Amino acid sequence: MSGQIDLQSGIKQLQEFPDGRPVFMLNYLNYKKIVSETGKTGKETYADYLKAAVPFFNTLDAQIIFKGSPIATIIGPLDEPLWDEVLIVRYASKNEFFKLMEMKDYPRDLRALALTDSRLIFCK
Prior knowledge:
This protein is an alpha+beta fold. Helices cover 35% and strands 26% of the residues. The protein has a single domain (28-123), classed as Alpha-Beta Plaits (2-Layer Sandwich). The protein has a 4-stranded antiparallel β-sheet with strand order 2-3-1-4. The model has no long low-confidence stretch (mean pLDDT 93).
């Protein structure tokens, strides 16, 4: 089914990507209006997540290289609403990304709380 998430397919493609080459993760983000657990907006809660996540990035060879808000669709369906924000993280290699995913205290739950929907897209 085209609407289902096939995490295994994406992970498999990432695992097969050559070692030692940088990978980029495009995060397409849609924030909750209010996060009941934090009492903040989704954007404020995501900012808290980033503040908590940066020390993890600093232990790896990874960095946020772009964070911004989509403004207008130039090519594509004009009737689809744009999401709230785009974030691109550069990892020196796929192994750096996998290390992050294995970190026990990485604040993934805070990230999930902030969002109504998201996409994580592996780019080279």
